DNA sequence: TTGTAGGCGTTATCAG
DNA sequence: CTGATAACGCCTACAA
């Protein structure tokens, strides 16, 4: 491996001159520059980034904490993160946490051990809680599912408004008993969406029936099971609002398995607008989220934080859009 | 940030002793060890990994080159990679290449610039082709879609046998005109699967009809479009073999849109057995691949290569399984 | 414009 | 068993 010293010898200059030639070519004389560049290419010299990072005390690595990479929504977010990071000269260290807080803390410590400069957390948990970051800004951005009192910049959807919009769509179709397949209890994201659901019911003068709220875990399987519960309860809902398209796809399967039709007997709506949403049968009515934008925004906020630039707003709300397809229809 | 020197002062020993206490506690006297450990915790000392990496000339980072992270099959592979890497003390630098070779070469150069120790490439392209790695083993493992003359360890499926098995299943159901929605032309993976498809046809005495081979790009959209082509061709197939579940899901949508039923009029089979395969309507007959195992195997092969251990076989073939569900049925 | 030299934090070598 | 010291490769005052 050729290092800067070899190049210097080859060019007959000092290492400082080589370094300068590479970093600010204009402050060395044209003749020297030419000689150095020739030596660089002759030696096939590539700066050792490990050394550069060590010296500059910055790795330009970002840790991404994702609950499950197999979730197609998160996969898109990560795609956005990767793209933005690369554009700004950063690399992405991917960590699949499966929602385990000890794992998250472990990965977050990659920042304290200087393997990475900052963290993008896609879940509502602060893995630095124990650490002291009194003096400097917490090197973290919280995106998608966001803490209630975030100690750092955030990127999220107005989940409450989105859920309200979707619920209103169902109410407009004549539905009065609307089931909801939620995310895990205690999640701020789910709480906000339930609030939006309640907002819509209340505005329409529909009483809340707690039995129509079933928890899931965002997977198709959990949607399938939760739909089974809803079908079994007396006063069966005529519409089901799922907190993710994956659960909606599971729910539709369950509804069909019960010999009912979607949306003929029961309307089903999802959330996220994943690719499969439009290929489902029937195609899913859903709330589209700008998944890649979540990732890109998170990256710029984090890099702003890391580099001390904080002009940009610290708490970003991204827009959603109601996408009406065939899985929802008038109340039978 | 407290460094080893501070700890040494605090404990009243030399930095060497601190380093030794942390690395091999048994070679320092119990008294010293206690003093050092006390100082370590008092100073809340965390070794600076950048420095460690710099000195050891190893980052313990692995670059993963993935064509599209949004593909659920690759997402699972990455999950396996991440899990195995973490267990072995490595981190994963994720790079979404979108199949662009310049991007792949750029990311691969993270190894030559010492940001990472090795590369896991999930596509049939050698991003190091230009580089000279004569003396030492190429720090790469090629998994999933594998080069024909791989310059490194590989992990793959016996794609030819798998495609043959699936095609035979369709032939057993009485199908004689079997369409195939392939991957991109020129891909070794697709070529092998087409070969397996041909093997099965030939064994059954069915002549190959080139018009029944349609290329796609593994997305549901491309499956949808390709199915449209197949439906339009004269001598329409009674079964369609898709090279990915995602394309199969797209194909099913197209078949239904044409007013035909699956499998009543046309059988459709996929490949991969993604989660959505069993939630499709009808549920997909497919070839199950051990996605996470691809990732785990790739990681161990790569680490073996990097650490000079090469006992394990260099070219691993992973098992597949035919999963028969409702999307395939007897020829009408 | 160019060279010299110190230091980033750690570990390994070599004495004591 | 422990301490002093020299690297690792690079950048940047400071000096010439």
TrEMBL record, chains A, B:
InterPro entries, per database record: HTH_LacI (IPR000843), LacI/GalR-like_sensor (IPR046335), Lambda_DNA-bd_dom_sf (IPR010982), Peripla_BP_I (IPR028082)
The keyword Transmembrane helix appears for this protein: no
Cross-referenced SUPFAM superfamilies: lambda repressor-like DNA-binding domains, Periplasmic binding protein-like I
Pfam families in the record: LacI, Peripla_BP_3
Gene3D superfamilies: 3.40.50.2300, lambda repressor-like DNA-binding domains (1.10.260.40)
Entry keyword set: DNA-binding, Transcription, Transcription regulation
Domain HTH lacI-type positions: 2-56
Family annotation (SMART domains): HTH_LACI (SM00354)
GO molecular function per UniProt: DNA-binding transcription factor activity; transcription cis-regulatory region binding
PANTHER family in alphabetical order: HTH-TYPE TRANSCRIPTIONAL REGULATOR GALS (PTHR30146:SF109), LACI-RELATED TRANSCRIPTIONAL REPRESSOR (PTHR30146)
Name under which the protein is recorded: Transcriptional regulator, LacI family
């Amino acid at each position: 491996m050729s290092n800067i010293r070899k190049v210097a010898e080859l060019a007959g200059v000092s290492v400082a001159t080589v370094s300068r030639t590479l970093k600010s070519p204009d402050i060395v004389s044209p003749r020297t520059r030419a000689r150095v560049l020739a030596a660089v290419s002759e030696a096939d010299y590539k700066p050792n980034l490990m050394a550069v990072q060590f010296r500059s005390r910055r790795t330009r690595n970002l840790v991404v904490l994702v609950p499950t990479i197999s979730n197609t929504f998160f996969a898109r977010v990560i795609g956005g993160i990767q793209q933005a990071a690369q554009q700004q000269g950063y690399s992405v260290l991917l960590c699949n946490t499966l929602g385990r807080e000890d794992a998250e803390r472990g990965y977050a410590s990659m920042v304290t051990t200087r393997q990475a400069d900052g963290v993008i957390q896609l879940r509502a948990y602060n893995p630095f809680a124990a650490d002291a970051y009194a003096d400097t800004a917490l090197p973290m951005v919280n995106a998608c599912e966001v803490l209630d009192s975030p100690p750092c910049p955030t990127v999220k959807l107005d989940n409450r408004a989105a859920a309200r919009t979707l619920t209103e769509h169902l109410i407009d179709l004549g539905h009065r008993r609307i089931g909801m397949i939620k995310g895990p209890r205690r999640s701020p994201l789910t709480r906000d969406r339930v609030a939006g659901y309640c907002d819509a019911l209340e505005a329409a003068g529909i009483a809340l029936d707690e039995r129509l709220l079933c928890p899931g875990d965002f997977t198709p399987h959990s949607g399938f099971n939760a739909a089974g519960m809803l079908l079994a309860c007396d006063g069966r809902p005529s519409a089901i609002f799922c907190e993710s398209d994956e659960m909606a796809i599971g729910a539709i399967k369950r509804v069909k398995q019960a010999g009912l039709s979607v949306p003929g007997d029961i309307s089903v709506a999802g959330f996220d607008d994943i690719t499969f949403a439009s290929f489902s049968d029937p195609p899913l009515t859903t709330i589209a989220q700008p998944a890649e934008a979540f990732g890109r925004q998170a990256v710029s906020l984090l890099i702003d934080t890391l580099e001390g630039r904080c002009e940009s707003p610290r708490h970003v709300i991204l827009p959603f859009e109601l996408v009406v397809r065939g899985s929802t229809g008038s109340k039978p």
